Amino acid sequence: MGTQDKDIIEYFRNLDRSFFMDVDKNLAKWDRPLSIGHGQTISQPSLVLDMTLALDLQPDSKVLEIGTGSGYQTALLAKFSKEVFTIERIEPLHERAKERLEEAGFKNVHLKLSDGSEGWSDHAPFDRIMATAAASSVPRELLDQLADGGKMVIPVGGEGLQELRLIEKLGEDEYKSTVLEQVQFVRFKGKYD
Fold first, then answer.
1. Fewest CB atoms less than 10 Å from the CB: which of 110, 126, 128, 172?
2. Is 35 marked active-site?
3. How many angstroms separate the CA atoms of 37 and 69, rounded?
């Protein structure tokens, strides 16, 4: 385990999940997903950590996050990347996450209210992409916005269990896909639900 991984784990252990919740704050220490309203959840902490470590963040990484949600995962990405571009489609969640991340002092997070299934082409390519909603297939738009040598973590599949995949871009239209584990995420909305 490298120094960056150790630092991520240490920061994660000290990141107060309840700060990113408006209800059920007393349940924040439970290792399970919890509702944040609007049919969305804050992921279980152990999965947030696993997905973050799988991305292999670097200090100069430019990261795209699909599904800001409460901002919990965003905070972890932002702490260990140069910039995070994060997209949320539900306005009350977008606004609340923006408030939290500003209050926490993050200056390297750019938020957008939009359907994330098509990514954020204005700022592509991205070194890393994190999707926190399950797509029926890996969105072509996200593959196209991944830099050569870049990595994407995304849940893929239908209702019920999905495969959490690590996609690595080896070159133009050349990708390696590895199944990391079985997961259950809320569904992508838009083109890939």
1. 172
2. no
3. 10
Per-residue pLDDT tens for 154-164? 999 988 899 99
Give the SS3 label for residue 15: coil
Query: What are the tokens at 38?
Result: 């609007």
143: amino acid identity, one letter: L
Neighbouring C-alpha atoms within 13 Å toward the C-beta of 44: 10
DSSP at 187: B
Q: By C-alpha distance, which of 46, 48, 83, 82 is closest to 67?
A: 48
Per the CB < 8 A criterion, the answer to whether 54 and 25 are in contact is: no
Rounded Cα gap, residues 184 and 137, in angstroms: 15
Question: What 3-state DSSP class applies to 95?
Answer: helix
52/84 Cα distance (integer angstroms) = 13
DSSP class of residue 162 equals E
Burial class (CB in 10 A: 0-12, 13-18, 19+), 137: exposed
Which run of H or E residues covers position 10? helix 3-14
- Give 93-147 pLDDT, tens digit per residue: 999 999 999 999 999 999 999 988 889 999 999 999 999 989 999 999 999 999 9
Backbone angles phi, psi at 165, to 5 degrees: -115, 145
